[in-house]
Amino acid sequence: MPIVVRIDVELARQKMSVGEFAERVGLTPANVAVLKNGRGKAVRFSTLEAMCRVLNCQPGDLLEFVEDER
């Protein structure tokens, strides 16, 4: 998949647990795991905004485009 999710990097940078992050963003820990592991198919802008607000980061800190090697 050409979009790499870097939530785990930002969580480590903030020294924040998945549980605390999920609670502050308004998601279940299971849904955070789906996003964190790159299995999510979509993210609402309101959710992305909440994640950035909680982690004090930009959307580009959480999502990265990586070209497929074919």
Automatic annotation (TrEMBL):
Q: What sequence ranges are listed for the domain HTH cro/C1-type? A: 13-62
Q: By its UniProt entry, which SMART domains does this protein fall under?
A: HTH_XRE (SM00530)
Pfam families referenced in this protein's UniProt entry, alphabetically: HTH_26
Q: What is this protein called?
A: Transcriptional regulator
UniProt source species: Pseudarthrobacter polychromogenes
